[in-house]
Design a protein that fits this description.
The complex is a heterodimer of chains A (about 475) and B (about 100). Chain A is an alpha/beta fold and about 475 residues long. Chain A has helices at about 10-20, 25-40, 50-65, 105-115, 155-165, 180-185, 220-230, 275-290, 305-320, 340-350, 355-365, 370-390, 420, 430-435, 465-475; strands at about 45-50, 75-80, 120-125, 145, 145-150, 170-175, 190-195, 215-220, 260-265, 295-300, 400, 440-445, 450-455. Chain B has helices at about 10-20, 25-45, 80-85; strands at about 90, 95. Classes of the chains: A alpha/beta (about 475), B mainly alpha (about 100).
């Protein structure tokens, strides 16, 4: 097998591994060499786990030799550094957790480990998943594999860039307001945020608990379907995790879209969005129509309020979730004479600017005298946003939109204006507020060669239909995928 | 540069919120925070365009509380590795500054 096996999809590698035409060790070595070669340009990883990965690969080869190995056995994956990994430091890209070594695995990590997956490293992110560009990392920004002067998106920017640059075959991210879909779009890969409660979050550092969800990145929709099946399902350690049976997502990929009703919301084609993005998304919708799908106009009238509602709800929840970083049980401590000063100095030193900003906004929104006007108001608007989707899904099977209003922006471009940064999630945030599944996949390139993302939104637990539609588009060959330039 | 006199929030409130949030802010950070919060609070004001008097709030979505399990006590098999993450620990305890005078 050629040494460029790092370029394989999971689907292709799985076949070669099973036939023993490729070994997990060879494949893992190829990915680790690739990481060595391009990591200085990208900074996709906070921690690379070469020795651990090779040991896992050797074990995977033993299982593969016996036959009947699970789908992800021997597949090199990158893990967003927000998942607890036993014995491997988990930083959340924060100074406050710089040296934190979890004593247990997140449930989904334990599941993948049991399948024989290989973890090549912990991927970079915005600190505590707060950001849209991975520039808020205490370990430096991740750069876009299509243009290293541009951001990879965020907050799961390292996970997206690592897949785009073939440093791994697939990866895991988290998505609270678009943190899987926006970087997938910016880096020209596929990412899915499943329905809220579809995947266990035990062992994943909490940002905004009513919105956070776990999901995979892949080079293809099929690869994401394969990974999602391994991730999803009930977990006794996470009472918010659904007990519904997990479908065979790969079996849903029939390639057929005939008769599918695709809703197109006019509120997602707004003034000021990049023309190339609008054109590419409209072309993808036209393709579905020519393949036999029915396009129906739908309305999501409260879309314009989603960012405002999100930044009150998410920051309020974050302010509570991040109370635990106090310098007592783990993480960095700044010593002081009394406990209050110890807390205040530790948190001042440990958290970055964006995390402090969100803790402050959230604390304000929950504080006496402001709770009703801000937090409760936002929760009521959340109801209206969810209702919009309920009504839209009464007359369509899925909804197609752009993933982000622009392609990847330049490093530093939005760092001085938090609100402008927040608005890059304008098309993804409402999906989290409504708890729905959203799939982002490449549907074109702008004039400068930067990838454009199509977003397919499904009803709750409608992962199969959006994966089927995404896979059908991919298989049609209407888009010729361009590889990253690094 | 933000000034102390703003519409939605003032410097005293910023200091109060920082205390509630257990964050020590420098004078520069206080000023920057004042400007940033003012901008965000002005932006989220657009929610007041909507009449929500008759709307119930949504706190959670999805299959909530679907997973139940028996409440069984389990033992931690490795207290030392947990304590190894602590900035200051003694035997099986986390050490903190004196909290009672």
């Amino acid at each position: 097998m050629a040494t460029d096996s790092f370029r394989l999809t999971i689907t292709e590698a799985r076949e070669l591994l099973r036939k023993r035409e490729l070994s997990a060790v060879e494949l893992t070595r190829a990915c680790l060499d690739r990481i060595d070669a391009v990591e200085p340009l990208l900074n996709s990883f906070i921690t690379v786990c070469a020795d651990e990965a090779l040991a896992q690969a050797r074990e995977a080869d033993r299982r593969l030799a016996k036959g009947g190995a699970p789908p992800l056995c021997g597949i090199p994956l990158a893990i967003k550094d927000i998942y607890a990994t036993r014995g491997v430091r988990t930083t959340c890209a924060s100074k406050i957790l710089e040296n934190f070594v979890p004593t247990y695995d997140a449930t989904v990590i334990a599941r993948l480990r049991a399948e024989g997956a290989v973890f090549v490293g912990k991927a970079n992110l915005d600190e505590f998943a707060m950001g849209s560009s991975t520039e808020n990392s205490a370990f430096g920004p991740t750069r876009n594999p299509y243009d290293t002067q541009r951001v990879a998106g965020g907050s799961s920017g390292g996970s997206a860039a690592a897949v785009a640059a073939d440093q791994c075959l697939g990866s895991l991210g988290t998505d609270t307001g678009g943190s899987i879909r926006e970087p997938a779009s910016f880096c020209g890969v596929v990412g899915i945020k499943p329905t809220y409660s579809r995947v266990s979050r035990f062992g994943i550092v909490a940002y905004a608990s009513s919105l956070d969800q776990v999901g995979p990145f892949g080079k293809t929709v099929r690869d994401c379907a394969i990974m999602l099946r391994s991730l999803a399902g009930a977990d006794p350690a996470d009472s918010t995790c659904s007990t519904r049976p997990v479908p065979d997502y790969e079996a849903a990929l029939s390639g057929e879209v005939k008769g599918m009703r695709i809703g197109v919301p006019k509120e997602f084609f707004v003034e000021g969005m990049q023309a190339d993005v609008e054109n590419a998304v409209r072309a993808a919708i036209a393709h579905y129509q020519s393949a036999g799908a029915r396009v129906v106009e739908v309305s999501l009238p409260h879309t314009q309020y989603a960012v405002a509602a999100y930044y009150l709800i998410a920051t309020a929840e974050a302010s509570a979730n991040l109370e635990r970083y106090d310098g007592i049980r783990y993480g960095v401590r700044v010593e002081a004479d009394n406990l209050l000063d110890l807390y205040r100095k530790t948190r001042a030193r440990g958290f970055g600017a964006e995390v402090k900003r969100r803790i402050m906004l959230g604390t304000f929104a929950l504080s006496t005298g402001y709770y009703d006007a801000y937090y409760l108001k936002a929760q009521k608007v959340r109801t209206l946003i969810k209702r919009d989707f309920d009504q839209a899904f009464a007359c369509c099977d899925l909804i197609a939109t752009p993933t982000a209003p622009t392609t990847a922006f330049r490093l530093g471009e939005k760092m001085s204006d938090p609100l402008q940064m927040y608005l890059s999630d304008i098309f993804t945030i409402s999906v989290n507020l409504a708890g729905l599944p959203g799939l982002a996949l490449p549907c074109g390139y702008d004039a400068e060669g930067m990838p454009i993302g199509l977003q397919l939104i499904g009803p709750a637990f409608g992962e199969e239909i959006i994966l089927r539609a995404g896979d059908a588009y991919e298989r049609s060959g209407v888009l010729t995928r361009k590889p990253a330039v690094v | 540069m933000a000034t102390e006199k703003t519409n939605k929030i003032n410097l005293d409130q910023v200091r109060h919120i920082a205390l509630l949030a257990r964050l020590e802010l420098t004078a520069d950070e206080e000023q920057r925070m004042l400007g940033d919060l003012e901008q965000m609070l002005e932006y989220v004001d657009k929610l007041n365009e909507l009449d929500t008097a008759a709307v119930e709030p949504t706190a959670q979505v999805g299959d909530i509380g679907a997973a139940m399990r028996d409440d069984v006590v389990a033992t931690c098999d490795d207290p030392q590795s947990i304590l190894a993450n602590a900035p200051d620990a003694r035997e099986q305890m986390f050490k903190v500054p004196k909290i009672i005078e």
